Amino acid sequence: MSTQPSKTLETFPNPHPERDYTIHMEVPEFTCLCPKTGQPDFATILIDFVPDQLCVELKSLKMYMWSFREEGGFHEAMTNRIADDIVAAINPRFLRLTGRWNVRGGIWTNVVVEHRQDGWAPAPKVELP
């Protein structure tokens, strides 16, 4: 196999660091293991961030997400860990990471994690007619 899972998140320079803009990514096939049963857990991971100086490279993000396939962890821990790793790699102005976990025992779980750089605030919302 030419590619392997990896915990390395590669980055590249933000092409427009002078401007706030949002990057939205969806990872619909995230898989890890339930720490209680060892059975697979599935989620869609939604990543929204306002980059500062760096952006995350997509292939490395794919390999990073793949690296959790054989790891056990609670939904809350996995979602926070992914957010922490992305923040450590790119230090975005803002990040919102949502884990939409598939039903388990008749219960849907969504975990939302946010990060803001010190002093950063979004521009006021513009309402157009």
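The above is record 1. Record 2 follows with the same two-line structure.
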Amino acid sequence: MIHTVKPNETLGSIALDYRTSVNKLVRANQLTDPNLLFIGQQIQIPHIPNPDTIPYQIIVSVSKRRLTLYANGQVSKEYPIAVGKQVTATPIGNYVIVNREPNPGGPFGAMWLSLSKIHYGIHGTNNPNSIGKAVSLGCIRMYNQDVLDLASIVPNGTRVIIRP
């Protein structure tokens, strides 16, 4: 997959977002100086497939508290979600799923799907009463059976668009 460098990003921050190492990014992009990045530069992320090759896309509506799965451009499924509270809002933007962890423990329920923004993901919950509310630290919470269903369908590299 290709990442376009944004203002204030470093190779280190990009590596964190995509859960890879700076060394892997340096090798994949044949960078002579990893400290010299420019806004708009294209960086190859070696272990993530190109989202354009994946028939799925996820659109999250924070205000509606809904996650919609699209398959080949058509609505496939919709799920109720919980989102971030006002002081820890769910980040608006375009991301991809970079990895996953079944049964991550704690409040994260039955599955964790990491987004390409460090510390954020789509996950299950040990508090199903929170679904439909703005209560998280910015992550997208789903019922455990829903996040397992979603994870069984979408591969890593799936585009996730979070809208207000």
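The chain has a mean pLDDT of 97.
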